[in-house]
Design brief:
globular; 11 helices; four-stranded antiparallel β-sheet; alpha/beta; 24% strand; binds adenosine-5'-triphosphate; 12 strands; eight-stranded mixed β-sheet; Rossmann fold
Length: 335
């Protein structure tokens, strides 16, 4: 593994098994998180984005199980296979929340309504570092101040309900940054906020990244946000990454019919004003009864008989990869 790699997900397979029902929530997913870079996982609801990151942090719901693949985290030059160690053992606890921080969609998830904001950030610092209460209080003030909470000295005595959504999310980010994580997982962190606040939070995350060199795994269904945030994008559909590449490659020259349809179906900053939005025809298949071949084929205008077999991943040059038979020849030409 090169010295820029922090986390490697290889052929990850995660399922929900309940009696006879098996949901293949994540299927053969691979990607690499590089130091100081942002990877965006993008796709519609139910495409497997959250299950992928919950597999990394080993925080799957009770019926969820990793049934294949490897998730390797590189800590101080040493490879740790996260899905081979105990979920709640010492090593995982030393990584989750510390090496790998999390920012959730709903900041209330990381805040307890009955304690003051200051108290919670301080407790979190004490949990991560050997510091006195006084030092923790100073650090809490410093972090909250640097994240743009106004009048910090008085506001730390307030409770979460006295904070606006945007301010709560700043505190959520503060909580996730306390242990100086190497990777931040942000699962739709701005979805609950209005547009101007969204932009402020995104800028804040970029500033943090610039200052600390943090890597980010950014999950969103919003292509505008992913264009703004990510260096590389993995487009997910029904548990698989169907297209992967640098943000510019994927957004300006999409190669998978699903990515193309997704780009035509949502407005995003910078899109051609004349372009008309289209809806993607048909519905997503039942996740408990996925077709054998390409899962997008039933909705795809280019589908042929070849699509009854799941496509290989074709490499189109410059790191751009796509799982679609349409590109078989292109790869062969590139040789
Ligand atoms: N606790 C669960 N029990 C059973 N199936 C689940 C559970 N959680 C997720 N799934 C299934 O796993 C698949 C992937 O879901 P996931 O939440 O990862 O999608 P997502 O892309 O993150 O969507 P969203 O944006 O809505 O969170 C879906 O088919 C979903 O129904």
């Amino acid at each position: 593994m090169d010295d820029q790699t922090l986390l490697k997900v290889e052929n990850l397979e995660t399922r929900f098994i309940s009696g006879e029902t098996i949901i293949r929530a994540v299927n053969d997913v691979s990607f690499t998180v590089k130091k100081g870079k942002t990877i965006g996982l993008v796709g519609e609801s139910g495409s497997g984005k959250s299950v992928t990151v919950h597999s990394i942090t080993q925080l799957l719901p009770p019926l969820g199980k990793i049934t294949g693949g490897r998730i390797t985290y590189i800590k101080d030059g040493k490879e740790i296979v996260l899905n081979k160690i105990q979920k709640n053992g010492k090593t995982m606890r030393s990584i989750r929340g510390k090496e790998i921080g999390m920012i959730f969609q709903d900041p209330n998830t990381s805040l307890n309504p009955v304690y003051t904001i200051g108290n919670q950030v301080m407790e979190n610092i004490i949990h991560h570092e050997k510091v006195t209460k006084k030092q923790a209080a100073e650090k809490a003030l410093h972090i909250l101040n640097s994240l743009g909470i106004p009048n910090v000295r008085s506001r730390i005595h307030e409770y979460p309900h006295q904070f606006s959504g945007g301010m709560k999310q700043r505190v959520g980010i503060a909580m996730s940054m306390v242990g100086n994580p190497k990777i931040l997982i942000a699962d739709e962190p701005t979805t609950a906020l209005d547009v101007t606040i969204q932009l402020q939070i995104l800028e804040l995350m970029k500033n943090i990244q610039g200052e600390y060199g943090t890597s980010i795994i950014f999950i969103t269904h919003n292509l505008g946000i992913v264009a703004h945030m990510a260096d590389e994008i993995g487009v997910m559909y029904m548990g698989r990454i169907v297209e992967y590449g640098f943000t510019r490659q994927v957004l300006t020259s999409p190669k998978h019919p699903y990515t193309e349809a997704l780009l035509q179906s949502v407005p995003y900053v910078g899109m051609n004003k004349q372009a008309r939005l289209k809806t993607i025809k048909g519905n997503t298949p039942d996740p408990a009864a996925l077709p054998e071949g390409c899962t997008f084929a039933p909705r795809c205008e280019y589908a042929t008989e070849a699509c009854n077999v799941y496509p290989d991943e074709f490499h189109l040059g410059g790191g751009h990869k796509v799982s679609c038979w349409l590109h078989k020849e292109r790869e062969e030409q590139l040789g």
